[in-house]
Design brief:
alpha+beta, Rhinovirus 14, subunit 4, 2 helices, 3 strands, about 30% helix
C-alpha cells in the first residue's frame, strides 16, 4: 500500500437514538444512528412507525384526501 494516502482505521463508538451503544471499527471515531438492530421493527417484532422527516404524516394526509374524494365520485353520473 502507498504510505500516507489511506485514512486511519480506528475503533468507532456507535450511538443510536434509542440509547444503544456499541463499538466497531471505522475511519470515523464517532457514528450516530437514528435506528439500529436493537430498536428496528424488523428485529424487535413490534409494529411501529418510523417517521423520517414527516413522511408518514404526509402519506396519511394523501390517503385521507383520496378516501374523501372516493364517495363524491360514486354519486356522480357519468357523462357521455
Amino acid at each position: 500500500m502507498k504510505k500516507a494516502i489511506h485514512p486511519e482505521y480506528v475503533e468507532a463508538n456507535v450511538h443510536c437514538a434509542c440509547g444503544n451503544t456499541f463499538t466497531t471499527r471505522s475511519t470515523k471515531a464517532v457514528i450516530r444512528l437514528d435506528i439500529c438492530s436493537r430498536c428496528h421493527p424488523f428485529f424487535t417484532g413490534e409494529q411501529r412507525l418510523v417517521d423520517t422527516g414527516g413522511r408518514v404524516e404526509r402519506f396519511m394526509r394523501r390517503l385521507n384526501r383520496t378516501t374523501q374524494a372516493a364517495p363524491e365520485a360514486e354519486g356522480a353520473t357519468p357523462t357521455g
